[in-house]
Amino acid sequence: MALFDGNNIKLDVLKKWAYNYRWAEVPEGTIPLTAADPDYPVAPEIRKALRDYVDNGYFSYTPKMGYPEFMEAASRALWERKHEKISEDCILPIDSAARGMYIIAETFLKPGDEMIVFDPVDYLFKESCLAAGGVPVLFPAKLKDGYIDLSELENYITPKTKMIGLCNPHNPYGVLYRQEDLEHIMSLCEKYGLYIMNDEIWSDIVYPENQFLSILSLGEERTGRVMSVFGFSKSFGIAGLRAGMIYCTDKAVFDRLVDKSAVMTTAGGIASVSQIAGIACLKECYYWVDEFIGHLVKNRDYAVERINRMPVIRCHKPQATYLLYVDISGLGVPSSQFTDYLIEHAGLALVPGGDAFFGPGSEGGMRICFATSHEILEEGLNRLEKGLKMFLEENK
């Protein structure tokens, strides 16, 4: 049976264990195309690595900075997959990319410092800034010719600006940054002495007709103030293990991150089992990611075509991620009103735009995750079409 055959999805297990707006949290009979988490079980190599570790019978303390094998595997994978040259001694395993974002903000933002946060973007940029006492300054990230328009970005920089948040690939748009985009952002950071919080958690999920380009590709001599986070949840489906890492090119910057992370005490850090899973991902499971992308291409193309045949709503074809950002502004109601309607009347759960998830600039949109089987996706889109038709008839 192929890895991404629909029969491999275990709905009974998902309904018990898949939380965060997914199968275990929605009403019975509802299809959740919500949180960015695959419906498929993880690669067999991850399960074997965890079983072997558990069978040894020991769960001892780990090295404070993480297992050396983790950093070795991460350094090699970053180079081979993304051509990012990162020394092993500048990689810190941490309990999720989200936690990495908080550490970066807490390390380099003082109370009152401003951080430019794109709007829309994943809410963790804003939340990590606020947790550090910083002030999020929302930059309207509008699409122009299929890319985020950065022409007004400099106008949002003030004497209090200390950091720019960069989500590449972008969530929820699913777009990549071009060489000229990254050059523009870096030039502004150089001009004003800014740090960059660089979230690359989606950098493995890029479609064959596109190529991921990291801001780190601009060269080590320019990227010392870039701090990157990566997590294993989107590529490998191990969100519940909370495995991620922070990395950078400047050792002095890295040492400050380590100090703030509390890994040198036993208060911070990442669990041993999470590192074991992360090592297996990095060393043995990229074949799984590549096959997953092949499956996702078919789901993406099918979903885009279906949605764009529906009345009023529209979406563009994402270059990366397994997310669709759907424009529902033509309905003339708040995003959450329509997504609530779909749950109640069509048995379909989607993520609404709006301040809670992506920022106020996402109002009038909604997000669909298609990291599932073709059969589940098809039924979900059938329900969207049915629910949309009912909604339009009721609101003539």
Automatic annotation (TrEMBL):
A Gene Ontology BP annotation from the UniProt entry: amino acid metabolic process
Cofactor list: pyridoxal 5'-phosphate
Aminotransferase class I/classII large domain location: 31-384
Database matches in PROSITE patterns: AA_TRANSFER_CLASS_1
GO molecular function: lyase activity; pyridoxal phosphate binding; transaminase activity
Superkingdom, taxonomy of origin: Bacteria
Residues forming coiled coils: none
EC number: 2.6.1.-
Keyword Membrane: no
InterPro entries documented for this protein: Aminotransferase_I/II_large, AspAT/PAT-like, NHTrfase_class1_PyrdxlP-BS, PyrdxlP-dep_Trfase, PyrdxlP-dep_Trfase_major, PyrdxlP-dep_Trfase_small
Keyword vocabulary terms for this entry: Aminotransferase, Lyase, Pyridoxal phosphate, Transferase
Keyword ATP-binding set for record: no
PANTHER family, alphabetized: ASPARTATE AMINOTRANSFERASE (PTHR46383)
Family label: Belongs to the class-I pyridoxal-phosphate-dependent aminotransferase family.
The protein's name in its UniProt record: Aminotransferase
Provenance organism: Hungatella effluvii
